[in-house]
Write a structure and sequence with these properties.
Blueprint (H helix, E strand, L loop, with lengths): L1 H5 L3 E8 L4 E7 L4 H12 L8 H4 L1 E5 L4 E2 L16 E6 L9 H14 L4 H7 L10 H32 L3 H12 L9 H9 L4 H10 L4 H10 L17 H21 L2 H17 L6 H8 L5 H10 L4 H9 L18 H7 L2 H6 L3 H12 L4 H5 L5 H16 L1
Helix pairs in contact: 6-12, 6-18, 7-11, 7-18, 8-9, 9-10, 11-12, 13-14, 14-15, 16-20
């Protein structure tokens, strides 16, 4: 009776193992954690105490606090309460340090797999016959690629015009197309490019002006903004920007007046009339050469008209335009207006694509094609457009697929 009176408080603990075994352990609160571990191991691992290392290779964890219990402390010192849950876990074996021989072997293997440097390449290829790559052929193939894309756009424009002419709502479609053509240039600035510049700290109005002057090129616009940062006229509006809407309304009304009666009469005359109207729309878009490239090439002694033709053929790329002027000057500016063979497998595959077919009935697609013909650098803007982007993506995929076969 005296032992029961003076004995410490008995705690009932719920013990679990990683294998799923569970049981209750009743221990006095002055029991050490090591003794508690021994009792647990006797319960779940018979014969485990024959190896003294078994106790040290296990640990008890308090489930609520996730604390690892210290072997030399008592249950009371670890602040364990009645009905607490403990987890019996086997300790992980310590990671062995690699042997020095293994480290040396690994470093040697990495050195063997390392790419050779320039001297090693020259030494290994010294006995090979010298060959020179014809850079002009590579550049010519690139120009052929660009020319082929232009031909596709020219032919697709003709198809889009005919489809729009056959539509009973051709006049309304023309109004929509003409309105989009004459809309304020600020609404047509590439939003992604504008956001990149504004995030750099440039004012939005100034960034819009820089993008318009540099054909939506972020790099060139940024250079322009830095170069003209202290220019007092940097925020002045571009010439002809404000009154741009007035002629647009007049053109729309006059075109509507011209197209309206013809379309009401029906027949081929209406289709021809609408085709002429879209030709007028195309004339509204003039190629805008890079002014810095024009100045640089003219300083080399070339005539201004030649320089503009060179930049138009080479998509405003100054280096390519210079090579064109010094070379055979092919393709010629007249070749840019020639379409692709309508019976070719490439063009037939493009026309059979459902996304392209649907896009050709949208006036905005026609305007995108016209704009990219005259200003190829604007293609990024149209690729990001939700209406014209899918059409351009399908054309690009079909071209690349057939070009590889």
């Amino acid at each position: 009776q005296e032992e029961k009176i003076f004995a410490g408080k008995v705690l009932r603990l719920h013990v679990c193992t990683m294998e799923g075994a569970e049981w209750l352990e009743e221990v006095p609160e002055d029991t050490t954690v090591e003794k508690l571990k021994e009792r647990c191991l006797k319960h779940c691992v018979p014969g485990s105490l024959e190896d003294p290392k078994t106790v040290t290779h296990h640990k008890l964890i308090h489930a609520t606090s996730e604390k690892v219990l210290t072997d030399t402390k008592t249950v009371l010192e670890e602040n364990i309460q009645d009905r607490d849950v403990l987890l019996l876990v086997k300790k992980r074996a310590p990671t062995l340090l690699p042997k020095m021989a293994d480290v040396v072997a690994e470093e040697k293997r990495k050195q063997e797999q390392k790419a050779p440097d320039k001297d090693a390449i020259l030494k290994a290829t010294a006995s090979l016959p010298a060959r020179s790559v014809d850079r002009s052929v590579t550049h010519h193939n690139m120009r052929d690629f660009q020319t082929e894309l232009r031909k596709i756009l020219v032919s697709l424009i003709e198809v889009a015009q005919k489809l729009l002419a056959l539509n009973p709502d051709a006049v309304e479609l023309f109004k929509k197309a003409n309105a989009m053509l004459d809309e304020d240039e600020e609404d047509r600035v590439d939003e992604i490019a504008l956001r990149q510049l504004t995030e750099m700290g440039f004012p939005e109005s100034r960034a819009v002006k820089a993008l318009r002057l540099n054909h939506m090129s972020v790099t060139q616009a940024m250079e322009w903004l830095i170069e003209h940062a202290d220019d007092p006229s940097v925020d002045a509006p571009l010439p002809g920007q404000a009154p741009a809407e007035a002629p647009a309304e007049g053109a729309a009304s006059s075109a509507e007046a011209a197209a309206g009666p013809s379309l009401e009469e029906g027949g081929e005359e209406a289709k021809d009339e609408l085709t002429e109207i879209f030709k007028k729309i195309r004339r509204k878009r003039e190629f805008r050469p890079d002014p810095r490239a024009v100045i640089a090439l003219m300083e080399m002694g070339f005539d201004e008209k030649e320089v503009v033709d060179a930049l138009r053929v080479n998509n405003n790329q100054q280096n390519a335009a210079c090579e064109w002027l010094l070379g055979d000057r092919k393709p010629s500016p007249e070749d840019l207006d020639k379409g692709i063979d309508t019976n070719s497998p490439l063009f037939q595959a493009i026309l059979e694509n459902p996304v392209v077919q649907l896009g050709l009935t949208n006036p905005k697609t026609l305007l995108a094609f016209e704009d990219m013909l005259e200003n190829p650098l604007n293609s990024t803007q149209w690729m990001n457009d939700p209406e014209t982007g899918p059409v351009m993506l399908q054309i690009s995929r079909i071209f690349q697929t057939l070009n590889r076969t």
